[in-house]
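Dear H.,

Thanks for agreeing to be a second pair of eyes. The structure we're designing against is below in token form, covering all 352 positions.
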């Protein structure tokens, strides 16, 4: 086992490959010494590419209205108990102003799929942010839209887009989503974004019902084709007002090992230690960084709306002000021997 594990980590490091059998072995292994060798290899690779620096992205959750009904998600349209809100353009711009003062150089506009904001509205918001904060990057995370919409947002100045595929396997995708949604359209969106010229972020949920090693392997293969600049993964966590309230949560160990695998397969990718990971384990985000992640996404949304953007139960940081989260995160980063990066944190291939 010792030798086998060494060989798997060596293949990941040197050849940037992993077979389905090796992935299975790696996830099933229960030896902590093996695991810590995998984490160390991934961490070293991250440090080689980025140094001991962590990029912060200011997350602005500007609407929790959503027209979709994903079975796992707390803001699904069918959740009548969710208290809905939308931020006005002024409120979004105020978050950015606050964010810039706090040192952020990236704003992530995230929301449910909310048709209330037309393509023109989104373009207008992007243009105003870029005008006021020309040194900052704008990342969109607003779900599936037309290729034309993506093109217009890009021309308005958005340079990055996050859209997790959630699972690359079509049958598994259909288990997680109602019939109106498809893995095919999701992937179409990702390819469109890539072709338009965005720095693209995809990713998957860890530990959703029906996910086995072969589904995860398909995600890896899909991402090797897509070659995204960013990859977000986090454990699936149940939300009480969804049809999946009784499904067991995804696990932290699997998430950390997969983060390490991703770091070794995609040495230059931006990998967040996600809020879901920090919710599943109080030290989850630190552990994520020590397993190869190099991005954190603190919340910049106004405190009054935070507890309404609940994708899953128990979400952390809903009571804190943005400044408190930034302070808390910088302390945590420093405690593990890293520092907060000051640059925008573009993907190495996109740095001017
Ligand atoms: N648990 C964990 N992550 C979730 N997301 C949505 N619902 C949940 C949940 N219940 C993730 C999805 C989405 C991202 C914004 O949040 O992967 O892409
Ligand atoms: Fe928000 Fe710690 S990061 S309170």
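And this is the sequence the design step returned. I haven't edited it by hand at all.
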């Amino acid at each position: 086992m010792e030798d086998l594990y060494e060989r798997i980590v060596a293949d990941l490091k040197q050849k940037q490959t992993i077979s389905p059998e090796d992935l299975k072995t790696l996830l099933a292994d229960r030896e902590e010494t093996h695991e810590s060798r995998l984490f160390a290899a991934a961490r070293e690779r991250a440090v080689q590419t980025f140094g001991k620096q962590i990029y912060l992205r200011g997350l602005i959750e500007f609407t929790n209205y959503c027209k979709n009904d994903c079975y796992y998600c707390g803001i699904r349209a069918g959740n009548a108990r969710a208290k809905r809100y939308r931020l006005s353009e002024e409120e979004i711009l105020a978050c950015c102003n606050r964010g810039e003062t706090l040192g952020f150089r990236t704003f992530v506009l995230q929301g449910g799929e909310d048709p209330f904001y037309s393509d023109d509205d989104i373009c207008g918001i992007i243009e105003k942010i870029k005008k006021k904060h020309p040194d900052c990057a704008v990342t969109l995370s607003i779900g599936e839209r037309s290729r034309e919409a993506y093109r217009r947002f890009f021309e308005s100045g958005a340079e990055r887009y996050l859209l997790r595929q959630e699972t690359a396997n079509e049958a598994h995708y259909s288990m997680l989503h109602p019939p109106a949604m498809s893995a095919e359209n999701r992937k179409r969106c990702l390819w469109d974004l890539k072709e338009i010229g965005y720095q693209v972020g995809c990713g998957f949920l860890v530990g959703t019902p029906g996910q086995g090693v072969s589904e995860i392997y398909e995600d890896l293969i899909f991402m090797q084709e897509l070659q995204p600049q960013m990859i977000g993964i986090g454990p699936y966590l149940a939300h009480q007002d969804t049809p999946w309230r009784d499904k067991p949560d995804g696990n932290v160990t699997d998430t950390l090992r997969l983060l390490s695998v991703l770091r070794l397969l995609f040495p230059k990718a931006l990998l967040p230690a996600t809020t879901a990971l920090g919710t599943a384990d109080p030290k989850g985000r630190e552990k994520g960084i020590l397993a190869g992640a190099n991005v954190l996404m603190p919340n910049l949304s106004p405190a009054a709306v935070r507890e309404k953007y609940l994708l899953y139960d128990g979400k952390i940081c809903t009571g804190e002000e943005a400044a408190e989260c930034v302070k808390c995160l910088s302390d945590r980063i420093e405690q593990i021997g890293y520092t907060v990066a000051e640059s925008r944190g573009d993907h190495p291939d996109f740095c001017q």
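Two observations from my side: The chain has a mean pLDDT of 97. The pocket of 5'-deoxyadenosine (ligand 1) is lined by residues 72-73, 164, 166, 205, 234, 236-237, 239, 276, 311-312 (CB under 6 Å).

Warmly,
E.
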